[in-house]
Write a structure and sequence with these properties.
- The longest helix is centred in the first third of the chain and has 20 residues.
- The protein has a twelve-stranded antiparallel sheet with strand order 6-7-8-9-10-11-12-13-14-15-16-17, with no helix packed on it.
- The radius of gyration is 29 Å and the shape is elongated.
- The chain is mainly beta and about 425 residues long.
- It contains five helices and 17 strands.
- It folds into two domains: about 130 residues, Rossmann fold; about 230 residues, Porin.
């Protein structure tokens, strides 16, 4: 009986398929053939919602390796004057699109949600793709239309480009024998125009740790506050001048109060207008530092007035082969050149060949300028809970990651089942 049912069901299905119009079958086949001829693109960006992009832009083919793409899209971002971010999209044609390059920019506001930023970034990708899709066989599948009525309105900024931000972050953690309370507050005021950059930042930190050991309750505290002031004047496409004024208080650094004044000048080998592609900046600062300490330092000082200078070199490149970020910072006190510090830090990511990429990151510092270290021995609790700065001659950090991907070059399908709702995979 079961066998007869199966045969009957198979006969019904075969009969139904035989009555499907031939044109419908041909449309399905043609759609597959046309999709194969869609523009092959590779999107290189950080924290992109690629599932969303694939859903919103279905008229291209997404490939997993830059060497397979007809169009390479690089997204870079920088913080803008409003407190949001400026996203720069570089479109570089390959194969039959070689020489067809473009650059588009999208700026988000300081209050924009992740969804608003995601929509804005995806919209820029759509607009940038049009000139390439127009030269493919999928041009007839895409329609362009404006949204709403467009009109000119005069923009009046009653804040005169000033942007303010307030934040607070209390954290509590408790166990049977230990509890931690940490509070971080910050206030900032920023004004950024083509001619001026002004930043005022205040940060406050308070941390209290209670723990029980041998039936005895102990309390440990760490607190600090810092006010940083920066003002920079543009002097053209390569030069800038300004200064920093910092006020600081920190139990961690044994500093009851300090004030640093550092006039500075900067030169960028590349024009500042190309900063989203590459930078090579030299920043020189020289000034004074006045300090009042909680406890006498290892040099027998409870207060002192110092002069110091600093040179920083920063190099950055972002391209389809990868990216480089390197900075070298050197400083010393003018009263004693042996009191100095030099630090090299960098990140390097390179696509070695198809499917293989390596990323190196790290920093190394030679430290000889810890003038505020308190005299005497630190308690074991202060060391373990990181409540006091420790004396050191160097600091090293490093990491290496190597990835290799192979298989199908296409990556068009979206399937969120059993996934992480907050997934923001790079590609």
């Amino acid at each position: 009986m079961k066998l007869s049912h199966c045969l009957l069901s198979g006969f019904i299905i075969a009969s139904w398929i035989s009555h499907i119009p031939l044109a419908a079958q041909e449309i399905s086949t043609d759609s597959i053939n046309i999709r194969e001829k869609a523009v092959r693109i590779f999107i290189d960006c950080q924290r992109c919602d690629m599932d969303y992009i694939r859903r919103e832009v279905p008229y291209v083919n997404y490939v997993r390796d830059v060497t397979e793409a007809q169009l390479y899209i690089l997204e870079t971002s920088q913080r803008n004057g409003s407190g949001g971010r400026k996203y720069t999209f570089i479109f570089e044609g390959q194969e039959n699109f070689t020489g067809m390059n473009d650059t588009l920019v999208y700026s988000s506001g300081p209050d924009d949600t992740d969804e608003i930023r995601r929509d804005g970034r995806t919209q820029i990708i759509k607009m940038g793709l049009m000139r390439y899709v127009a030269k493919s066989e999928l041009q007839s599948f895409v329609e362009i239309s404006p949204i709403g009525d467009l009109g000119k309105e005069e923009v009046v900024d009653r804040w005169n480009y000033w942007v303010f931000r307030l934040s607070t972050r209390p954290e509590i953690e408790a166990q049977d024998t230990r509890s931690d309370f940490e509070l971080r507050n910050s206030v900032s005021a920023v004004k950024i125009t083509d001619e001026w950059k002004i930043e005022l930042d205040y940060d406050h930190e308070y941390r209290r740790t209670k723990y029980t050991f041998d039936d005895t309750l102990y309390n440990r505290y760490r607190s600090g506050q810092q006010l940083e002031n920066l003002i920079v004047k543009s002097l053209g496409e390569h030069w800038s001048a300004g200064g920093k004024l910092d006020l600081n208080s920190s139990t961690f650094n044994n500093t009851k109060f300090s004030i640093d004044l550092l006039p500075s000048i900067e030169y960028n080998i590349f024009p500042y207008s190309q900063s989203s592609h590459h930078q090579f900046r030299f920043l020189y600062s020289i000034g004074s530092s006045s300090r009042l300490y909680y406890d006498s330092t290892i040099y027998g000082k409870t207060e002192e007035n110092l002069f110091l200078h600093q040179l920083q070199m920063a190099f950055q490149v972002q391209d389809k082969w990868g990216d480089i970020n390197i900075s070298l910072i050197g400083s010393n006190y003018l009263h004693d050149f042996s009191k100095n510090r030099i630090e090299l830090q960098g990140d390097l990511e390179v696509r070695i060949f198809k499917g293989l990429a390596i990323r190196l990151s790290g920093s190394v510092a030679r430290i000889r300028d810890q003038l505020s270290l308190p005299k005497g021995d630190l308690s074991e609790a202060d060391i373990l809970l990181s409540l006091q700065e420790l004396q050191t001659g160097y600091q090293v950090r490093s990491s290496v990651s190597l990835t290799y991907t192979f298989g199908s070059i296409y990556n068009n399908i979206v399937n969120p089942r059993f996934g992480n709702g907050g997934d923001r995979r790079r590609r």
